[in-house]
């Protein structure tokens, strides 16, 4: 029985109900820390002590401090409603609100809808059940109507989000990831509070006895993030920016906090590096069904991403593979007949296993290879077993699975998706794949008609081995091949092979020449991408052939420098294969395109692998195994250079200081790492390094580099300069030999360039590799990743600083700003760009930020962003007129018309306004109004290639002094807009009245000049019109009068409308009287020199209009006919009386009627405008007034504290470093 009205009859909207009603929670002490404001027999409305007026004295301060420290919801919702039955001591919270108005609405709803109903019940338990059910029903109905899912963020986390936005003025677009209790060290005093980690910012808030502390730092501004310990504090996190250091301590779970901070900082660095923004993806792991309830959905998603990244790196899987879940289990290994304890990982396309002991055994089973998944019978020896069979007749037996049924269901689902996908691909590519091999090879041959390298490795054609030839080297090679064949027989062959310590030993002894390509493909994981993308490479080759770009030009230049000493690249066959692979990759990944060193690595891949295989090996290398190595700024190699320096300091400390002094580490590491030693070692030795690299990853390169340094310690310590050190290392590397190689000796280019001293004793490559494992094998891949993160922060921030310095150095000679001012302006310009990338803008962030472009073009802002900076930095910005003036200014600065301006264009405009002389400022103002009107939406946004930028800059650098006479004349419509601008510019100036009078005088003078100009131009006007109709059209389009203000006024909207069809761009006198505000020409002979200016009727005003005014001129030779100024204010009316009427009623009784029209022949020149302004001292002083640029920059920085101004009278600190 429900006697109360339905929720739909409630006077409150569902949204307001649901956002304030809460699931009833029990409260034992209703009066503790709360003050009762209203009460009735069933409900109590309370306010938190210390909230609102008065602050509640000491008790209020203590309550405020407790709320922050204990993370109380009262910080967000200081009002609440409790439910209580008359005879009970237990209270229930049923609603809370952030303001008295909100909570009063709930209170009134309760009184109107529930009080009478509750009095009917006799049993108190029934009343409690009814009230709780009613509140829960309202919330449930809201959730159903608004599609709120149960697994969304918890109420506690929603409170934290609301608190975060309220405290730091963050918009809804800023997503909170998690928050942690900690102490922030402000000087020598710790402030206990809460650390909020959002996608783009690190924020801290503390409230202690009336004192607030706030801190806001962009992730993109962080230069160092460290977790370490001091004598006083066991665990601290130190966050460094360019200008300050911040220390946080006393974390409950410092490990989790630091990992999340690292992850968010990494995302920010990625955005700065290659513009891949963070995209929220809610595909969270399903296997682990008991996920923590108090963690945000975004935090769970980030955790899932981090796990997927580690999973992909561990098993060398494709970049888009997502981990679904993992579970402990055992794996039966037939080669040693034992059950190995480890973890099974399940993802969309793979089942993987790794043993607890890292080196014991690992396994990768692609679902495309799986034929059967079945549950075997359990027994005491083998509980919950699972059997998986593959196409190559291998069976894998897993056991001790905790949730076997669920696991089998997940694998079956993924298997079904994989099977249907393979079937679909076969259907699509049936013409290529359904026939026998002849058709497939024929299809490929048609694409590469004269290129046999498409189907075989280049090395097979250059291995001159006669059947009777047999020597010890070949015997050793034969034994190696046999060892690998025996290994395959025992451990399996192909992707599903058991990978054990024995596999690693075989790799370290060297992979046989004949098997090298296949095993590189297998160990790198490239085999998986190739198998899942049939025909992809051929398509790329076809699409990229004949295309020209910067990358293809560089490729052509480097083709003949790629292993020129090898016979395979001394003819067109090898060169053509190399060209195709490099061009196809540049086409696939334009972010990387082509980088020097890729040619050397690719040429070696082509020697041992088929062309398509070499392509996929290059993909694995560039995109997974050596991330960011080959982009335009070789960031990955610079990061690893920093990692190598750290490792050298830890592992060869006696050499570190010497190497730093000589500056050798940075020189050697780039060439060693970028080419995997291929450019510094004899070819037959370097391929052994590549063998190990594909099996073990980048740690091999670090180990080997440390071994080379370690072997030359004494010689390096005696070196006097970097040249000597490089010679020592070069001679050592030249002497590294591979005595097992069956290849004919190939002269090494590096050795030809070294000095003629005694040759270095030979160093066996296998011994060098073995010693690198013995001495430095403890270096772990996860430690390298940790070091990479630290170095990535440093490298990317250094690149950003270099960009800033280069931009400033380029334009410092072009402007009057100092270097310090330019650097501060660049920081503001970049911050405006980043803020808009975070929280949205009118244009795509990728259009505005392209790190691959030259320095000056990397950051560009659109109109909306420019408006923000214009209001803060430009002295002409004033009141409601600022946006319109900003639009005019933006159009003038946007030279290439792509609706974006770069930093140089921005600074050029600002420099004139702040440091230009009177003539330059007035010329700028004049040019802003003489531009033809054009809608912003009509601007074509395009991204020109680099040649366009070079051409534009060449034009800009040829600075020519613009002759005043080259400036076009200002027509009457444009003149009206210029007058509007002047009046609005002065609206907040201390000498406002004086400036208005001066402007009125100048306006009157210019109107007369325009009329006089008409007399001289009237004779030739018609002929000119006939000669150049287009120009006239454009001129009238620019001068066509605006529609009603507010509704269609282009001046207010920043747009000038196109002429209507049939009007020819003219505002004819026969237009609708209520549509156009028009001016009527007076006869010069009868009424003196009469003209008129725009007036705004009271009826046409609306919220968007600024100060309205009208200016009339007739018979202006008389002194008393000067413009008058009355009650200058926001609604100023400037009038000129024809017949002594102060209201402006003149020729037609109403001053300016809607039937008047613009004078198309009226115009003034810039010289006339300049001369008129110079007659008024007030205007001259205004435009010559010096501008304190640093003060404006400081104000702009303060206003930029996270997008919105933070209003607080308490002690707070905001840091937005840059």
From TrEMBL:
InterPro entries: EF-hand-dom_pair, EF_hand_dom, GRAM, PH-like_dom_sf, Rab-GAP-TBC_dom, Rab-GAP_TBC_sf, TCB1D9/TCB1D9B_PH-GRAM1, TCB1D9/TCB1D9B_PH-GRAM2. Residues 510-697 form the Rab-GAP TBC domain. GO terms for molecular function: calcium ion binding; GTPase activator activity. SUPFAM superfamilies: EF-hand, Ypt/Rab-GAP domain of gyp1p. PROSITE patterns: EF_HAND_2 (PS50222), TBC_RABGAP (PS50086). The keyword Zinc does not apply. This is TBC1 domain family member 9. Gene3D superfamilies: EF-hand, Pleckstrin-homology domain (PH domain)/Phosphotyrosine-binding domain (PTB), putative rabgap domain of human tbc1 domain family member 14 like domains, Ypt/Rab-GAP domain of gyp1p, domain 1, Ypt/Rab-GAP domain of gyp1p, domain 3.
């Amino acid at each position: 029985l429900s006697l109360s009205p339905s929720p739909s009859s409630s006077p409150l909207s569902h949204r307001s109900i649901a956002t304030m009603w809460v699931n009833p929670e029990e409260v034992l002490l209703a009066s503790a820390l709360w003050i009762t404001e209203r009460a009735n027999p069933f409900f109590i409305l309370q306010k938190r002590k210390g909230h609102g007026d008065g602050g509640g004295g000491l008790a209020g301060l203590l309550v405020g401090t407790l709320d922050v420290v204990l993370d109380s919801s009262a910080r967000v919702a200081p009002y609440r409603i409790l439910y209580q039955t008359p005879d009970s001591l237990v209270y229930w919270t049923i609603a809370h609100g952030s303001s008295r108005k909100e909570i009063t609405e709930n209170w009134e709803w309760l009184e109107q809808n529930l009080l009478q109903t509750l009095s009917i019940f006799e049993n108190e338990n029934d009343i409690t059940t009814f009230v709780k059910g009613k509140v829960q029903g309202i919330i449930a109905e809201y959730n159903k109507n608004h599609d709120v899912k149960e697994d969304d963020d918890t109420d506690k986390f929603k409170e934290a989000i609301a608190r975060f936005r309220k405290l730091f003025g963050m918009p809804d677009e800023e997503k909170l990831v998690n928050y942690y209790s900690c102490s922030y060290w402000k000087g020598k005093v710790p402030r206990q509070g809460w650390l909020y980690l959002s996608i783009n910012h690190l924020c801290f808030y503390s409230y202690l006895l009336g004192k607030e502390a706030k801190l806001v730092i962009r992730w993109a501004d962080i230069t160092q993030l460290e977790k370490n310990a001091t004598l006083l504090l066991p665990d601290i996190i130190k966050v460094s920016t360019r200008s300050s250091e911040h220390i946080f301590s006393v974390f409950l779970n410092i490990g989790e906090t630091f990992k999340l901070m690292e992850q968010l900082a990494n995302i920010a660095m990625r955005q700065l590096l290659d513009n891949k923004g963070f995209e929220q993806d809610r595909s969270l792991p399903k296997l682990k069904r008991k996920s923590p309830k108090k963690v945000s959905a975004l935090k769970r998603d980030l955790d899932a991403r981090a796990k997927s990244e580690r999973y992909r790196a561990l098993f060398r899987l494709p970049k888009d593979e997502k981990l679904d879940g993992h579970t402990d289990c055992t794996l039966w290994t037939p080669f040693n007949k034992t059950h190995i304890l480890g973890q099974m990982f399940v993802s969309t396309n793979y089942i993987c296993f790794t043993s607890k002991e890292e080196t014991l055994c690992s396994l990768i089973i692609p679902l495309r290879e799986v034929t059967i998944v079945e549950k075997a019978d359990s027994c005491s020896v083998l509980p919950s077993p699972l059997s998986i069979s593959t196409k190559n007749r291998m069976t894998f037996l897993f056991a001790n699975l905790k949730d076997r049924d669920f696991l089998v269901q997940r694998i079956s689902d993924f298997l079904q998706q994989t099977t249907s996908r393979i079937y679909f691909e076969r259907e699509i590519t049936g013409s290529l794949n359904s026939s026998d091999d002849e058709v497939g090879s024929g299809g490929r041959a048609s694409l590469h008609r004269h290129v046999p390298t498409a189907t075989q490795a280049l090395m097979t054609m250059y291995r001159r081995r006669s059947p009777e030839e047999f020597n010890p080297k070949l015997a050793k090679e034969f034994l190696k091949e046999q060892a690998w064949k025996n290994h395959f027989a025992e451990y399996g062959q192909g992707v599903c092979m058991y990978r054990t310590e024995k596999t690693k030993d075989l790799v370290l002894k060297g992979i046989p020449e004949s098997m090298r390509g296949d095993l590189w493909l297998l160990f790198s994981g490239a085999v998986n991408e190739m198998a899942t993308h049939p025909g992809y490479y051929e398509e790329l080759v076809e699409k990229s052939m004949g295309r020209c770009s910067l990358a293809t030009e560089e490729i052509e230049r480097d083709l003949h420098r790629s292993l020129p000493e090898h016979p395979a690249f001394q003819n067109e066959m090898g060169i053509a294969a190399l060209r195709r692979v490099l061009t196809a990759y540049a086409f696939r990944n334009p972010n990387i395109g082509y980088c020097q060193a890729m040619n050397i690595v690719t040429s070696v891949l082509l020697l041992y692998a088929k062309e398509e295989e070499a392509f996929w090996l290059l993909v694995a290398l560039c995109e997974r195994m050596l991330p960011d190595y080959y982009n335009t700024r070789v960031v990955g190699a610079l990061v690893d250079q920093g990692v190598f320096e750290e490792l050298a300091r830890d592992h060869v400390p006696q050499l570190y200081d010497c190497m730093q002094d000589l500056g050798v580490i940075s020189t050697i590491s780039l060439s060693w790492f970028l080419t995997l030693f291929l450019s510094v070692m004899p070819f037959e030795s370097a391929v052994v390094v590549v063998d190990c690299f594909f099996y073990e990853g980048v740690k091999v390169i670090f180990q080997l580099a440390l071994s080379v340094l370690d072997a030359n310690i004494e010689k390096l310590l005696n070196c006097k300069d970097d040249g000597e050190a490089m010679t020592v290392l070069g001679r050592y590397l030249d002497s590294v030999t591979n005595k097992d190689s069956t290849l004919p000796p190939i002269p090494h280019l590096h050795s030809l360039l070294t000095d003629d001293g005694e040759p270095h004793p030979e160093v066996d490559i296998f011994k060098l590799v073995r010693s690198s494992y013995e001495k430095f094998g403890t270096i772990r891949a996860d430690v390298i990743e940790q070091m990479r993160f630290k170095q990535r922060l440093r490298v990317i921030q250094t690149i950003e600083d270099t960009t800033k310095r280069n931009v400033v150095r380029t334009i410092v000679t072009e402007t009057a700003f100092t270097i310090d001012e330019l650097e501060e302006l660049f920081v503001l310009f970049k911050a405006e760009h980043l803020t808009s990338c975070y929280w949205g803008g009118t244009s795509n962030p990728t259009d505005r930020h392209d790190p691959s472009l030259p320095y000056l073009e990397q950051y560009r802002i659109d109109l909306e962003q420019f408006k923000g900076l214009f209001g803060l930095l430009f002295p002409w910005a004033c009141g409601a007129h600022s946006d319109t003036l900003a639009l005019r200014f933006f159009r003038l600065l946007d030279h290439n018309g792509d609706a974006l301006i770069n930093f140089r264009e921005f600074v050029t405009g600002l420099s004139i306004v702040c440091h230009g002389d009177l003539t330059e400022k007035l010329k700028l103002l004049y040019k802003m109004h003489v531009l033809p009107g054009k809608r912003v939406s009509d601007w074509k946004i395009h991204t020109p290639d680099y040649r366009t930028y070079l051409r534009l800059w060449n034009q800009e650098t040829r600075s020519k002094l613009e002759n005043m006479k080259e400036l076009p004349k200002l027509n009457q419509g444009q003149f009206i807009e210029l007058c509007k601008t002047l009046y609005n510019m002065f609206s907040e100036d201390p000498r406002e009245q004086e400036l208005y009078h001066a402007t009125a005088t100048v306006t009157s003078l210019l109107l007369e000049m325009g009329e006089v100009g008409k007399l001289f131009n009237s004779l030739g006007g018609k002929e000119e019109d006939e000669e150049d109709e287009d120009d006239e059209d454009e001129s009238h389009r620019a001068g066509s009068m605006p529609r009603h203000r507010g509704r269609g006024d282009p001046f207010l909207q920043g747009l000038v409308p196109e002429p209507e069809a049939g009007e020819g761009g003219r505002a004819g006198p026969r237009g609708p009287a209520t549509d156009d505000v028009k001016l009527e020409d007076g006869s010069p002979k009868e009424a003196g020199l009469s003209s008129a200016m725009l007036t705004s009727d009271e009826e046409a005003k609306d919220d968007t209009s600024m100060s309205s005014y009208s200016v009339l001129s007739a018979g202006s030779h008389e002194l008393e006919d000067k413009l008058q100024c009355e009650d200058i204010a926001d609604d100023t009316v400037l009038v000129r009386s024809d017949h002594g009427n102060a209201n402006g009623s003149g020729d037609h009784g109403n001053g300016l009627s809607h039937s008047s029209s613009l004078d198309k022949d009226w115009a003034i020149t810039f010289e006339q405008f300049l001369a008129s302004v110079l007659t008024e001292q007030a205007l001259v002083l205004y435009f010559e007034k010096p501008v304190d640029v640093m003060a404006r920059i400081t104000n702009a920085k303060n206003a930029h504290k996270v997008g919105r101004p933070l209003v607080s009278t308490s002690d707070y600190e905001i840091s937005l470093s840059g």
